[in-house]
Amino acid sequence: MESLNLRPATPADVPQILKFIRDLATYEREPDAVIATEADLLRDGFGETKRFDCIIAEIDTTPAGFALYFYNYSTWRGHAGIYLEDLYVDPEHRGKGIGKALLARVAAIAVAEGCPRYEWAVLDWNQPSIDFYHSLGAVMKSEWKGMQVSGEALTALAAQSNKK
Known about the structure:
Helix content is 34%, strand content 24%. A 5-stranded mixed β-sheet has the order 1-2-3-4-5. It is globular. By secondary structure, the chain is α+β, with helices and mostly antiparallel strands.
């Protein structure tokens, strides 16, 4: 019988975390989009200024998936929340309840920390995941659309902060 273990990631897990991130990017049809390095993950997950937390799922002692999350803040609620940046389970381990266990563990952390909300994004074409999330009680936001500024547009916008 296989045994599922969920545990906080350690610095020794960074190579595996980066592999999961790359595998997720491939699944999401963006295999060349990952520019993060092991050094980036070490700095931001385990360094002086911690920017994210991560849970590793293992079947017996084999890494099978991960959940990477960070805290955000709701001005309307006056409390921190949790944003799930990445959730991934290796294809060979899907269908064993690992994704649900990871989602539930991060939800338990949110509740224990007094976070009134827990949110994440899902690609609009990923219907199996959308259906799975709905089965857990997640609600698709319909009025709010995500916005992002990056690359040259971010640099150009930042440059405007010096203009009068």
